[in-house]
Amino acid sequence: MTVIETETAHPQGPTPGVTEPDPGAAGAAGAAGAPGAPGAPGAAGSSDGPDASADACASVPTAHPRPDGRDHYTISEVVAFIGLTAHTLRWYERIGLMPHIDRSHTGQRRYRNRDLDWLTFVGKLRLTGMPVADMVRYAELVREGDHTFTERHELLEQTRLDVRTRIAELQDTLAVLDYKINFYADARPAPERL
User: Fold this and answer.
1) Are 90 and 125 in contact (CB under 8 A)?
2) What is the pTM (predicted TM-score) of this model?
3) Contact status, residue 113 vs residue 64, Cβ threshold 8 Å
4) How far apart are CA 6 and CA 143, in angstroms?
5) 55 torsion bin: left (phi>0), alpha (psi -120 to 50), beta (else)
6) Are 133 and 97 in contact (CB under 8 A)?
7) What's the distance, CA 86 to chain centroid?
8) Residue 17: enclosing H or E segment and its boundaries?
9) Which value, to the nearest 10 degrees, does the dihedral of the CA atoms of residues 43, 135, 164, 35 take?
10) Distance of CA 14 to the CA centre of its chain
11) H helices within the chain, ranges in order?
12) Contact (CB, 8 A) for 42 and 117
C-alpha cells in the first residue's frame, strides 16, 4: 500500500495530510468516503495551498466528504465522517498526534480535508497495532520536514514487519479453524478427542 503525504504551511507550522486508498472499507470512514478525491484539496495532483507538496509515493485518491471546495468541518461533522469521538479528537490534539487545528472567530475547531486525510491515516496506523507513542513520533517527524524521511521510512518498515508477522499468525489460526470446520462438516456426530 502506498501513501501520499502532503505538508502544507500552517500558521503554527506544517500540517501533515495523508491519503490512503480504502476500497470497500467498513465503518464510518469508509461509508462517508475516504479523503482524497481527484481535484479535491489534498488530492494527488492538487494542493491545499500554494506551498503544498507530495512525496513520490502516490496512491489512488478517493473522495472527500465535501469535494466542492468547502473545506471546513466542525468537530461533530468529523465525528460523523471518521467515526471517532469528540473526546478522542481533542485527546489526539493534546498529545500531538494532530497538528494545530484552525479555530473560527468563536473558537470552534475548524477541520480541513487534510486533517480528515491525516485522521484516516492514523486510523490505519491504529489498525496495525502501532503504539500511540510511535504514532505521535511519526506525526512529529512529518511536522519536522523532509529531512526526516529516512526515520519515517524506518518506522513504517518496522510497522509493516509487525503487521506481516500478525498476518502469518492469523493465517496459521485460520488453517486450524478450517481444519476443524471441515472435520465437523465431513464427520458424523461423534465425540471429539482432545
Assistant:
1) no
2) 0.62
3) yes
4) 10
5) beta
6) no
7) 17
8) strand 15-19
9) -20
10) 18
11) 27-32, 75-82, 86-95, 113-128, 132-144, 149-186
12) yes
**DSSP conformation class of 102:** E
Q: Can you tell me which residue has the cell 521510512?
A: 153
DSSP element (H, E) containing 5: strand 4-8
**Exposure of 148 by Cβ count < 10 A (0-12 exposed, 13-18 middle, 19+ buried)?**
middle
- pLDDT digits (tens), the chain, 194 positions: 444 444 433 333 333 443 333 333 333 333 333 333 333 333 333 334 434 444 433 344 567 777 666 788 999 999 999 999 999 999 999 999 998 898 999 999 999 999 999 999 999 999 999 999 999 999 999 999 999 999 999 999 999 999 999 999 999 999 999 999 999 988 766 666 77
- Tell me the one-letter amino acid at 68: D
Determine the Cα–Cα distance for residues 193 and 19; give it in Å rounded to an integer: 50
Place of cell 461533530: 76
For 92, phi and psi rounded to 5 degrees?
A: -55, -40
Please give the torsion angle defined by the CA atoms of residues 35, 39, 42 and 43, in that order, rounded to the nearest 10 degrees. 70
